[in-house]
Design brief:
mainly alpha, 22 helices, elongated
């Protein structure tokens, strides 16, 4: 029995509302967790006051790839105050916006079933959830990647000056939210050149010249405007990173897939990779040369991987997330068609459901084994300082060993001391008061701070909070 068009639209609307509500619920639960390192850096160096905000841009903004997010977050905090949820509010809006634009883009070009599965993957993705509730620009990065891609192909399909201008504006804003949005613009530039060499566009030769001209100049202008944002810091940044190499990660390309899908085991990444390739190859859409465009995007991380810079991280390639979800979702959509006809339809449906449930459940663990990206955003400054305030004497000296004194101070109503030398530390300790010291795991320390750390390690009580050491030392009698 055929389903009426009105009933189909009603089911679509209910599915869309369900996904938005689900996305909101998962993200809102993370909004008031304690700040992690990068967020506290943003607060201390960009949001504390208009003076701090101005000095951030006038003196040096080379420490952030998220210039646009800093501006937006400062505006929100200026009116609502600096709290966890206010710093993260723009990220939440962009995160929910990504779910919306992803749904409509997939539904228009790839079908209802792929749209539902792909958007559900984004809705439940631990990485997308944590980025939508963190004061950084990654949720905006994903949002503008989807929006830019949609506008780019719409411009090629139906060329106009208005669409060309819209694409240029979106691309320019996108790179302001993250430097690594630049590869998206670069992929569009390469793609439009390939299309011009092929001399074909959507089986509409009469539109070819106009489409390619608009597409080329729109992408080129946004590329040049975006470069202007980072030219002031490019030389300094390149100079500071030149010659610095990180540890070579042989399986980095597969790590990109497993991190973004939050898979606990690398072999599962191979399974998803096969499913994603099937989905991308079997997709039947009218977008001109879209597989070439996706191929450019997936090839971009390889030169960075081979160059092996110190700063290499999978999160810089967040622009791949929509296309990974698209490939996996479409792979699940076409999977029933790859199963021989002798198997009943129910079996095919169960196969699709089983694959999807497996993908959603594997690695979905915030407490036992989260993905590296999710774990990175779980620094527990708030929890460690709160524990110290509730459990130790009000006269105890609070101090920070190495980096982070201003970050711990954000949550402390007591002065957070820091020491330049081991002698300064011993002088304070000799006064007889209790010492409560905080230290970050990982960041390098000076020789003097290492002496303080080793002294506390050998003499104090130790409690750990994720990536933070909390030392308690009784007063010297």
């Amino acid at each position: 029995m055929a389903i009426s068009l009105s009933r189909i639209k009603f089911i679509e609307l209910c599915s869309f509302i369900f996904l938005i509500i689900l996305a909101f619920c998962f993200r809102i639960l993370q909004m008031n967790r304690g700040f992690f390192y990068d967020e506290l850096f943003l607060v201390n160096h960009g949001l504390l006051s208009p003076e701090v905000f101005r000095s951030y841009f006038l003196e040096d903004y080379s420490t952030a790839n998220h210039i646009g997010y800093t501006v937006l977050s400062f505006g929100v905090c200026h009116f609502l105050g600096i709290k966890e949820w206010t710093v993260r509010l723009p990220a939440l809006i962009f995160g929910l916006g990504s779910v919306v634009v992803f749904w409509f883009w997939l539904k228009e070009y790839f079908g209802r079933w792929t749209a539902f599965l792909g958007t559900l993957l984004m809705t439940l993705s631990p990485v997308c959830v944590i980025w939508s509730a963190s004061g950084r620009g990654y949720s905006a990065f994903i949002f503008f990647t989807i929006l830019s891609t949609s506008l780019y192909f719409r411009l090629l399909e139906y060329p106009s000056k208005k669409k060309a201008l819209s694409l240029g504006v979106v691309n320019t804003i996108g790179i302001a939210f993250h430097l690594f949005f630049l590869p998206v613009i670069f992929a569009q530039l390469c793609h439009v050149i390939v299309l011009s060499l092929q001399k074909r566009i959507l089986h509409k030769p009469r539109m070819e010249h106009q489409s390619l001209i608009y597409g080329f100049f729109s992408v080129l202008v946004s590329f040049l405007l975006s470069a202007c944002v980072y030219i002031p810091i490019a030389g300094k940044y390149v100079f500071s990173q030149s010659g610095i190499k990180g540890e070579f990660i042989s399986n980095f390309p597969l790590m990109v897939l497993t991190d973004f899908l939050s898979l606990a085991l690398i072999p599962l990444g191979v399974v998803c990779l096969i499913l994603m390739i099937i989905g991308l190859m079997k997709a039947n859409v009218r977008l001109a040369g879209w597989r070439v465009y996706v191929l450019f995007l997936f090839l971009i991380p390889i030169p960075f991987w081979l160059a092996n810079p110190q700063f290499l991280s999978t999160r810089f390639f967040a622009f791949l997330i929509p296309f990974i979800f698209l490939g996996v979702a479409n792979g699940m959509s076409v999977l029933p068609r790859l199963i021989p006809e002798k198997f009943p339809k129910v079996f095919k449906i169960l196969c699709v459901v089983g694959v999807f449930v497996t993908l959603c459940s594997i690695g979905w663990s915030w407490k036992t084994k989260p993905s590296d990206i999710v774990e990175e955003y779980q620094n527990t400054y708030k929890e460690s300082v709160t524990f110290a305030k509730e459990n130790f004497n009000g006269t105890a000296n609070f101090c920070s060993i190495g980096l982070g004194d201003k970050f711990f101070q954000f949550y402390s109503d007591r002065p957070m001391r820091s020491f330049s030398t081991f002698g300064d530390f011993i002088a304070l300790y000799s006064q007889g008061k209790e010492m409560v010291c905080f230290a970050l795991m990982g960041p390098p320390m000076s020789d003097e701070h290492k002496k303080i750390f080793l002294f506390m390690w050998n003499n104090a009580q130790i409690k750990t909070f994720n990536k933070i050491y909390l030392f308690y030392l009784k007063g010297k009698s």
